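>> received
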Amino acid sequence: MNAPLQAAPVVDLELAMDGVPDFAVVRKWVDLLQKAGFKNVRARSIKPTDKPEVKPVGKGDNQLYIVTGILSGTKIILPNGSIRYGDLEGAKDWLAKLSGDGVENLTAEKGAYGLTKEQIVKIYDELSKPVTLSTKDRATKDVIRGISQVWKVRVGVDTNARQSLFSDQPYAGELKGLTSGSAMAMVLKSVGLVMYPKKPVGGEVQIMISQHKKDQEFWPTGWALETNPGKAAPELFNELDVEIKATEISKTLGAIAGRLKTPILIDYGEIQRRGLSLEKRVNIPPGKTFYKKIIDRALSQGGLRSEFRTDEAGKVFLWVTY
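>> returned
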């Protein structure tokens, strides 16, 4: 037998008005807030001790929340949120978060991706798990499926991402041994997708996959190196005599990669989308130099560059991008 659904808590609002109110406007505010779902709304003058807060009263089916909001100008300031004049959906969204997640999560300090510190740590730990399968030349859809299977969090997919997600296109890079967060971000980027943690109202944190949207915060393809590159990847600064004549960038990188401990990983999709090519032939005159400089000189001739990054576990790699 299914357990009975718990009734949504009653939410009352004390609307503390800052300044001299226009009572016609206040009446419209009260109507909007009650339409959004606030049970009782009482408007009054602000007190020196007033601040945005939520006070829970009772438990279970008798749960009541008494909210204090500050009406200042054209918006109401609430705990971890605000409602602009006339924004019925904004008022409903704030109420849904309170009813679905409770006071503690609503009022907790939020950081990246709108998550609490504990939620971020949980996701970071999941995405720090290593990739155990070989990814080179495997169908992109199989790489994505294989990487996601190491996580103990739900993976959601936006409708607009499904076609790209199930790509049969082979993924050219080898990501085995890299952490699953950076690796998945790289594979998704190769087909124009991104991922990010999301906390749905009333649910657990999950990983969402979608097309990239302007100003969206998404999981990166590795993290900035915070130590000295010479200490983090010393073999890239070993000197040698070199001369390269009319050799493709891909072959140049391949020859060097075989001599390094530090992986060279490539931003394949973005390079292709920008009309650049790893098959451009490059030349480097004879002389004494070091591997990092050879790589950078070769890449620059193709409009490309490299930068040091680390995965979630601190493993250093060289990222080749535009």
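>> Residues 117-221 form a domain with the Phage tail protein beta-alpha-beta fold fold (CATH 3.55.50.10).
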